[in-house]
Amino acid sequence: MSAEIQLNDKIYWIGVNDRQTALFEELWPIPNGVAYNSYMILDDKVAVIDAVKDISMDRYLEKIRSLLADRRKIDYLIINHIEPDHSGGIKILREAFPDMEIVGNKKTLDLLTHFYGIKDNVRQVEDGEILDLGTCRLKFFLTPMVHWPETMMTYEETHKVLFSGDAFGGFGSLDDGIFDDELRDLQYHEAEMLRYFTNVIAKYSVMVQKAITKIKDLDIAMVASTHGPVWRSSPRHAIELYDKWSRQEAEDGVVIVYASMYGNTEKMMEAISRSLTAEMTGPLRVHNVSRSHPSYILADIWRYRAIVLGSPTYNMGLFPLMDHLLRLLENKGLKDRIVGIFGSYGWSGGAIKELTDFAGRMKWQLTEPVIEVNCSPTDEDLNNCTRLGMNIVQRLRT
Ligand code: FEO
């Protein structure tokens, strides 16, 4: 019992750290892993809140059995979110505890049937319904599309713990503790939260805002998400971060994202970055799309107010990795950014038109001059790059 991690006298963390998966959703790099947080409430009734991916199931069951001791039975499994990173282990859990009733809303139970063929021993709950465990009382808040249609949050009223599903979660395994006040480097975890938010949740920013409004009057002592730290010393901080990101509020700063096949577009990028750094006050981040994974570029672009995009023409269009990044940005619907555009071409143009069309579709504030260079930049072209940097700084000041 010594390894048990308690949130309070009734609630335990029984999650697992995934240090095996290379790409979350087979898309996003997680070099430092990810946690699938699962919780157990030992009250008159026993409830597990959210399960885990089907990894480390032996250890997961061992933790549960150790906490149950001679009680041997789970009464309820509450599913806040049925994406398989939280439900992959359900079949094994149900085999181990066949009497366990699975609790979810209508959409959850539909997906439970479609994913796992489970139809029996389930309980459908409605928005605002309460499940009494004895001392603990679970109140359900339906918060659709944070991140799937069935997502909900469960608020334990007695201890004021909000089990928030994916909301307020982040990448990164929990190595030095699970609570925000235990972690040695909270800034790192906040950066991993931003990356998780932008990569996975950001498309549903409007629904995150609705969810935050729905829980705004709750007295919250702890935020217990399905990923990342449990926030007990500053639960409001986790909510404030997601609130800021889902409002798409940007900080002072510039992100240059460029591609360059033979160094000509890179030369332009350097002229722009020198001109920016001479005048700007916030940070400058520079990403070469051939080297930085979009996961990290998206996080920076979401954070800062001005974006400068540079691409050579490739097969009469955008450089493919830049094209991929722009599709991701368009899909996520990022609004209200200052944008600058530059690029080069050899025997056919195309990239600049696509970049300009993109900026128009996004309704971003296009900053002049748009610079298109044939082959190698001349002194005049580089002067234009300097002007672009200065004009972006001007816009940032307004
Ligand atoms: Fe952590 Fe949307 O699953």
Q: Strands, helices and their partners?
A:
Blueprint: E1 5-6, E2 11-13, E3 16-18, E4 23-24, E5 28-29, E6 34-36, E7 39-42, E8 46-49, H1 57-68, E9 76-78, H2 84-87, H3 90-96, E10 101-104, H4 106-116, E11 122-124, E12 130-132, E13 137-142, E14 152-156, E15 161-165, H5 186-201, H6 205-214, E16 222-225, E17 230-231, H7 235-246, E18 251-258, H8 264-279, E19 284-288, H9 294-303, E20 304-314, E21 317-318, H10 320-332, E22 338-345, H11 351-362, E23 365-366, E24 371-374, H12 379-397
Parallel strand pairs: 8-9, 9-10, 10-11, 15-16, 18-19, 18-20, 20-22, 22-23, 22-24
Antiparallel strand pairs: 1-2, 2-7, 3-6, 4-5, 7-8, 12-13, 13-14, 14-15, 16-17, 20-21
The protein binds MU-OXO-diiron.
Residues 81, 83, 85-86, 147, 166, 226-227 line the site of MU-OXO-diiron.
Instruction: Provide mean pLDDT, rounded.
Output: 97
Ligand catalogue: MU-OXO-diiron
Estimate nothing, just give the exact number of structural domains.
Answer: 2
CATH topology term of the largest domain: Metallo-beta-lactamase, Chain A
Unreliable parts: none
Question: What percent of residues are in strands?
Answer: 15-25%
Task: Please estimate the helix content.
Answer: 25-40%
- Structural class of the secondary elements? alpha/beta
Radius of gyration: 24 Å
Shape: elongated
- Spatial separation of the terminal alpha carbons: 59 Å
* Alpha plus pi helix count: 12
Per CATH, the class of the largest domain reads: Alpha Beta
Describe the structure.
- This protein has 12 helices and 24 strands.
- Strands 1-2-7-8-9-10-11 form a 7-stranded mixed β-sheet. Strands 18, 19, 20, 21, 22, 23 and 24 form a 7-stranded mixed β-sheet that branches. Strands 12-13-14-15-16-17 form a 6-stranded mixed β-sheet.
- It has 2 domains: 5-246, 4-Layer Sandwich (Metallo-beta-lactamase, Chain A); 254-397, Flavodoxin domain (Rossmann fold).
- 36% of the residues lie in helices and 25% in strands.
- The mean pLDDT is 97.
- Strand 10 (101-104), helix 4 (106-116) and strand 11 form a beta-alpha-beta unit.
- Helix 5 packs across helix 9, helix 6 (205-214) runs antiparallel to helix 7 (235-246) and helix 8 (264-279) packs parallel to helix 12.
- The chain is elongated and about 80 Å long.
- It is of the alpha/beta class and 398 residues long.
- The longest helix is centred in the C-terminal third of the chain and has 19 residues, at 379-397.
- It has helices at residues 57-68, 84-87, 90-96, 106-116, 186-201, 205-214, 235-246, 264-279, 294-303, 320-332, 351-362, 379-397, and strands at 5-6, 11-13, 16-18, 23-24, 28-29, 34-36, 39-42, 46-49, 76-78, 101-104, 122-124, 130-132, 137-142, 152-156, 161-165, 222-225, 230-231, 251-258, 284-288, 304-314, 317-318, 338-345, 365-366, 371-374.
- The structure holds MU-OXO-diiron (FEO).
- MU-OXO-diiron binds next to helix 2.
